[in-house]
Each structure stands twice: as structure tokens, then as C-alpha cells.
Description:
Oligomer: single chain
Strand content: 5-15%
Structural class: alpha+beta
Helix content: 40-55%
Radius of gyration: 27 Å
CATH superfamily of the largest domain: Beta Polymerase, domain 2
Strand order of the largest sheet: 3-4-5-2-1-8-9
Largest sheet: 7 strands, mixed
Order of helices and strands: HHEHEHEEEEEHEEHHHHHHHHHHHHHHHH
Amino acid sequence: MEKINIAKLFGSEIKELMGLIRSSGKECYIVGGAVRDFLLKHKNFIDIDLTTALSVDQLIKIFKKNKIDCDDRAIRYNCLTVSIQKRSLQITSFRKDIRTFGRTADVELIENIEEDAKRRDFTINAFYCSFNGEIIDPLGNLEDLNNKELKFIGDPEARIIEDHLRILRFFRFVAVLGLKYKNINPKYLPIIEKHIDRINDLSNERVAAEIRKILLSAFPSFALKLMDKVKLYEKVLGTYSEVSNLKLEKLESRYNLTPCLVRRVLALQIHPQIPLMSKKEKKYFNLLNDLMNFDHNPDYLGYKVGEKPSLDLLVIRAIKDRSTVKAKDIEKIKKASNKVFPIKFSDVHSFSKNLNITKEKIKLMESFWIKSGFKASKGKLLGLIN
């Protein structure tokens, strides 16, 4: 397999940290998603996790000696969070589960990389990368990855009982990897449905984090459909509509719209049982929701609220009203979003000297200008106030 240039791909600070840990005599590996995504030729690497045969106590000594910030709140799980150059990395010790409790476990430290790989969730996540960039596949799972087959490591029911979050992670990987029926074992769905109520034991934050990743994936429709099949969609998102789901994905693809949580929540009429949106997203949600109550034309929308919100609104309306998105409306929005109102405050205020009257006149002139298709000249607009 191709070697990874760690410094170039993930950052020199990652390489240096791995080298520091390795200098103690034990290898340090990048594990899981980052290695998987490299092998899948993905370009963005957000979460980078490290693992080593060193104990957390040994790691803490190394970090303290080198003045590296370290968060040990998850130390009972043999996990540390290290901050380097404004990046947070999780570092775990090789371990295997002795007793599991749905999201937590009693673990035993080990030095065998194969045993560490066996406790991971899916075969596509059990890849390691050494300090030298060598990719290690302890369980021989490369074929699963090449075929994009989502398989649990070991018995799926046992893995779900061990860690209930794996239910949500299953659908997340279906979404982010763009999987279809051919990529999953159909026997998994009845097992997942059998244990669906186990997600009640998870924190809202954990559930929300996974649901967000599903809804923000490029093509989430198939994952959402599977979630409906196992009664998960209704449990966390409300009423499922396959028609809306497929139409939304089709429109987003046709108009090259990037994933947007608010657009998808409104278009699919999602009523989440847990908080999903950030403050910024809530503000955007309120903006679009308010605009839904008014029949504004494309010129007004493009000029007043900008291209992205206007396009989002067109898509949402088309799905909710079972209507179509007209190409000419999109063109109008794009053009209107670049228009600049030719009247300045000083152009009008000299006529009235009254602030409120000036604002009212500017408002009327702007409305006339928009209705004219932005064609009314400055002279004509000023003529309206005489």
C-alpha cells in the first residue's frame, strides 16, 4: 500500500507529536477515519486520532516534560486529549474491553495491535499508520474498504450492545461514504431495529453530533431512508417523506448547492427531538422561516437577502409546495444579489431635513427601483420625492 506523507497530509505538528511519543520506545499510530479517508482518496481530514501501546500515565509524563497541554477527563477510558497549535487530538492506549456498559467500558491495556483493532467498530476503521507513513491492516480489511462494504468487526449485535453509539455511526458512514444497498449487509437492519431504543441511553450531545454529520453529508437520502426503515428517523427527526427526501437531493445536485443543515431541516420539515443547530444556524433558520410567510419575488429576495438564502428558499418552497424551481428565477436572484441601490442618504436628506421622512422616502424609492427590475435611474428615483 502507498505510504502516507504525514507532515504534508496532516501537518508537521502531528508528525512531531508522533515522533515525541515514539522516542519513548513505543510506536505511535494514526488510527481510524484519517487513514480510511486517505485510502479512499479523500482530501479533507478533520479528526485525527492517535494510538500507542504506552499507558496514559506514561503519556502524561511525556507531555508534562515537554509542556504540552493535556486534558485527562477521559483517563478512565485510557484516552487523553492533547492541544497542539490550536488543534485537539485524541490519543488512546492500546486496549481491549473487559466489560461494556453501552457507552462506557472496563478496559485492559495491551500491546498487541491486532487486539486493539478487534475492539473497533467497523472493518473500514481498523487501519493504522506508523510514524514512517506505513499503513497497517491488522485484520485484513482492505478488501472491505476497496468494495466500500460497511461491516461490523465481529458479531454486530454484540458490538451494538457494547456501544450504542454504533447504531448512529452505522448510518453516518452510510451517508458520508455514499453507500447503497450493495454496500451493507441487509441482516444488520433488523438487528439495529431490535436495539433502537438503546440510543435513549446516549447523551443528547452525542446523538446530535452524529445526526448533524448525517444531515451535512453530501448525499444523505439513502441513510435517511434506512433510518426510517428501522424506526430511527421518527425517533429523532419526526415524519419521514421519501418524496421530499429524493427531490431535495435532486435539486441540490442540479443547482450545485453545498450541504446546509438549515435548508435540509426546513425542506424535510424535520422536527428534531434534540437540539441540532448552533446559534448561527438558528438565526439563519429564523430568517428563512420568516421569509416563507411572504411571497417575495426573485428580484426582491436576491437584492434584500442575498444569493444563498434566496436559493435555499426557492428549494424549500419547491419541496413543501410540490412545485418546481424555475431557471429564470435563479438567474434573477443571482443578478439581483449584485445590484447596488444608486441612492445615498445624503441625496434625499437635503430635501426634508427630517430623519424619519428621509428613511421613508428612501424606502419607497428602493421599492420602486426593485419593482422596475433595477432599471429606474437615479434621476428618476429622485424625481419621485418632488
